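quick one
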Amino acid sequence: AEEMAIAHHGRPMVGDVAQFVAPDLPLPAGQPLQSLPRLPLTTAPDGTLQGQLIAAPHTRQLLAGKDTLFWAYNGQLPGPLIDVAAGSTLDLHFENRLPQPSTIHWHGLPVPADQDGLPQDAVAPGGQRRYRFTLPADFSGTCWYHPHPHHHTAEQVFRGLAGAFIIRQPNDPLAHLPEHHLLISDLRLDADARIPANTAADWLDGREGQFVLVNGQLRPQLHVAPGSLLRLRIWNATSARQLRLALPGASWYQVGTDGGLIERPQSLQQLHLAPAERAEVVVRLPATPSSPYTLQALPYARGKMVGREQTQSLPLMQLVPHGQAVVTPALPELLRQISPLPAPVREQRVLMAEKAADGPVPVQFLINGRSHDPERIDLYSVQGETEQWEIINGSDMDHPFHIHGAQFQLVSRIRDGEETPEPWLAWRDTVNLTHAERVKLRIRQDLPGLRMFHCHILEHETLGMMGNLMVKAAG
Ligand code: C2O
Ligand code: CU
Ligand code: CU
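structure w/ CU-O-CU linkage:
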């Protein structure tokens, strides 16, 4: 009854929804895809990998004669790639040269709660700290990092702060394939090539830009040999854009999710990546290709929304056949084995919904009927105990649910009263819920401490669609 009362209230209009028209600026496009810059790491005598991340204002000229002021890690857009083996210990020195408090949150990584860049652990402007953690030997994945301070997460990410973080398992069955990284982000520029603040409509629907970039580039090109098998890791690092990806003409297979490889390659038509979600895919190009293959984002309706929907396919990048055809071996049938999490000892329930409100943003974004309060614990778990969480979207739009501290296994999705079991096992930390959808997932937090769970539309998270989970130490 509670959820029925909140759900389907009808989405209010915001004055500037229809007025958002971004200028069509001649950004350079079609250049060769650049690989993500790597974070230099030095190895201490005890094997600890040490590095440094500095968040600071950074100016670029994307358009001749016009400065665009970004906020960047180490002056790089996207931030530097951290690429380490499972089991690594990292010691990362962070300096905040932004005019706001900031943190670094290690999205998807099972790091101790006090190293996870929580809003409660912010680094003041001009301040610094170290993030130290050891990754579990059995953890691998395609993760990322971004700021997570109170009230400023959305802005710090849309101004440029985000980077990729890969954790590799030994004996990776796809290690022989050429690998490329595609970090997808949104950029909005005004007519003077400045990054404008959020409008009220952005706070409602989530911010999108007129440019969707891959590794910071507009529609880059990647040259590939005909017949090749390519491994791609793809990040949706946008604030709010649902990416329904297609690659017409080539065959492609999903081989991994947020938390590493799945058991068997899954042939893909489309790949849906919600904000913050990642995937690993393998692309097979025909031996006699005709023309370039365009990775594109298909139109997607994010619920019963007003205005601003992407209505046309958006080209993101091209794979351009180039050179001699190569013969590549078949994909392995079994990539790894994933054990299903055991029967849960506890159930938790999370309702994501909106409520009409007075103010420039005419709704409040709530979890279990409440707006985020950093001082309030919303749910309790116990370290090492498997739980089943039911997440309910009681709103008129999509909300991607994300939880810190552990990867989960989706059990089923429920739509119109019909429950569909997940067809294959996978480790994830983010799952999209379309409007009026529910999902069941199993999760086990292996480390004690404070964790957040929230909508990963960063505007919704920033406005309070976030809860605190306290994981009590076992025993
Ligand atoms: Cu990437 Cu709390 O999130
Ligand atoms: Cu996270
Ligand atoms: Cu949301």
